[in-house]
Amino acid sequence: MLLGYALRRFGVAAVTLFVAVTLMFVMIRLVPGDPVQILLGPRATPELQARLTAELALDQPLLRQLLIFYGNLLQGNLGVDVFSGRPVTLIVLEQLPHTLRLIFASVLWSVPIGILLGAYAAARPNTLFDRVSAVISVGVVAAPAFVVALLSLLLFSVHLRWFPAIGAGEGFWDQLRHLVLPAFAIGLSWIGYIARIMRASMLEVMGADHIRTLRALGVAERPIVLIYALRVAVLPVVTIIGVGVGFLLSSAVFAEIVFARPGIGKLVIDAITTRNYPIVMGAVLMSTALFVTATTVADLINAMLDPRARAGK
Amino acid sequence: MKLHWSRTAVGRRGFLKGATALGAAASLPGGMATRAAAADDSTLRVRAYGDMQSMDPAYSVGVTDEEIHASVYNKLVQYKPGREWDWQLDAASMVEQVDPTHIKFALRDDIGFTNGFGAMTAEDVKFSFERIVADATESPNKPDMGPLRHVEVTGEREGTIVLNEPFAPLWSIALPYIAGNIVSRAAWSANDGKVTTTPPAESGPYLRASWSPKEKTVLKRNPDWRGEAPAWDNIEILPIDDENTAEIAFEAGELDFTRVSLGSVARYRDGVPNGGALLEYPSLYYAWLGMNLDHPKLQNPKLRAAIQHAIDVPTVLEAAYFGAVEPSTGIIAPGLVGNRAASKIPPEADFTKAAQLLAESGETNVTLKLDTLNKTTFTTAAQVIQATLATIGITVEVNVLESGAFWASAENEDLQLVLNRFSMTPDPYYATAWFTTEQVGHWNWERFSNPEFDQIHQSAFKESDLDKRAALYQRAQDLMEDSGAYRFLTHEATPVVHSSRVMPALRPDGLALLRYFEKG
Q1: A165 Cβ under 8 Å from any chain B Cβ
Q2: Same domain assignment for residues A184 and A305
Q3: Could you give the number of structural domains in chain A?
Q4: Is the complex ipTM higher than 0.85?
Q5: Which of residues 166 through 185 in chain A touch B, CB cutoff 8 A?
Q6: Close Cβ partners of A265 (under 8 Å, ≥ 6 residues apart)
Q7: Which of A32, A151, B416, B475 shows a CA-CA span of 20 to 30 A to B452?
């Protein structure tokens, strides 16, 4: 049954990927501005412009351009960067690990804190801790990530000089130090989201029949919370993490700019500005695949933890 | 090898002592007891506004590439650091203009290429220059080499540059800038002429040690360089788009040199962190308000003149550039041949005259669209222009565009007013090139077409008499202003900050000449 669910889910993921990439392919071509002129600059010869137009198949109808793109994609060919002549696949794969590290680091620190905060607040509803945690959760959700980024830069980089302000670092420990502030900036609001979802879910589970039965049987409160309630209550959080990868990808764009880090987000922004279609499509394909994979994995984990999910209930 | 270690017993008291010491260290200024930057004394860290794109001078398209090329390649001459435009010998031991179309040169005998590609010869100069103008190369830098016919090799290290006609920008653009970089003929040939991001052979005081895309380019001292030794062992060039980020990185001690935003100039005038200094240089950029002469709404010359007189340039500059820049008199910046001492229309608005011109034009209920880039500077300037034109009864709708769409404005037949900004190299020839009749529909968005202007553009670059050349370019700018299609705003400025560790070497427009940077 799980296999059937997984196959269905993979099918949905493939369709989602196809629709998203096709939409992006069409949209970037609808944006005003001659890509060849923007790419090559004011001094390119007409011959060079004509050659690039043909190379990018921009002289072809849109549908044919799309077919060429998917034809090349099926052969594993995303084209070459117009400026450097380097393969797009290589360029995207160079940048991807930086973005993945940032997203992973953000999730790694924020989600456990959010879960603990939410679960603890739910276990002690209407206490001072619950109220304070509610204020903190709403506060961090409301704080714009770019403000957190700038303030943390000014405090921890400029004033205290604890952490580096820019770049991605070299070597494990240096890279880790370079991750601290950007991961803090984009992960902070997640604590609030996760804590609120976790609290609501936990309260619902704590009032469920099976928990009441466990209490009636004399099971201690701690195992009830940690073993029986938490496992069920955490399901919405798993789903949210999957969807949240998309949110984190978009947050990574600003983090990569503010912290001058390499990454997919910065690559896409630069490529869209210069109408560098091969890079745009390569990066969009990769980030869409990342998002679709994350949501699919989240759904599969959900299905494993909760049989009702794979039954579509 | 087997490592031995012994376990040290740490008691409660010992642990507390250690923890207290760590906590104290963390709370000290310079936290964690070390600077985040931890830049060593021999590494210079500078900001570039973009990433490197090509290591082939034929395809280099900008300042970032050239900052690297100028450090790892040599030219016959390089720009001389300072406040006035000048050049100095580099790979050449002698350069001499023997007549308007012949320039003799002799190379130093101590410059060689890396990777076993031998000494630099006149054949390398010939190869480097001629491939820029060859049609097959399709180099965007071809116009910089102007009317180059060929390079005549007269000896192993001697040769003559032969031009089809006199070309004054040879000394200001061709030789000391991108197109003037000398590459190894043998190395390029070994790569079938295809060089992208990895240089097959270098010859300058630095070598490109590594390139991490979107992260940094590292230059290291060339051990085989026989010229004057550069001051720094390593240079790290970090691509940082955002000026605010660069300023924070500078203040955190992670950058030694960066351009800063005009909005931060007042703050840095009061003091630069880390014992650094602010240097304010003029810029070669030129910003202006253009009017599309082909648009039906802008056919009336008196309406255009009214717009020119109603724009108060000092107010625009105060609001958009924080008062850190001066009004311009045209497209040619101060310090360059052809700069005008004053524009025909004063920078200050004359609302009475503007209103009178508008009344004489007979135009009523004038509503115009002003296109501009989505950068704060330009949107602010556009809003000020909108407000000032409103005082004489002209309604302006500001149309903010993303850069790709904005730079495609040549295709926009409905373009009316446009707030524009071009960059240029240090020769007026480069500036006038974009306003000729030939450029209508390409980069001449005002669709300004004047036979006298075209003729000046075609002839002034041949003029070797500086005074005559200056007069020609001044006349060209008069013609632009007389057309009513232009209201010149500013050449902007290049404010930079540097740490106390470094003494920057800059061109007169504030751009970095990294190979000449000294230690502070």
Answers
A1: yes
A2: yes
A3: 2
A4: no
A5: 166-168, 177
A6: A99, A249, A250, A252, A253, A254, A255, A256, A257
A7: B416
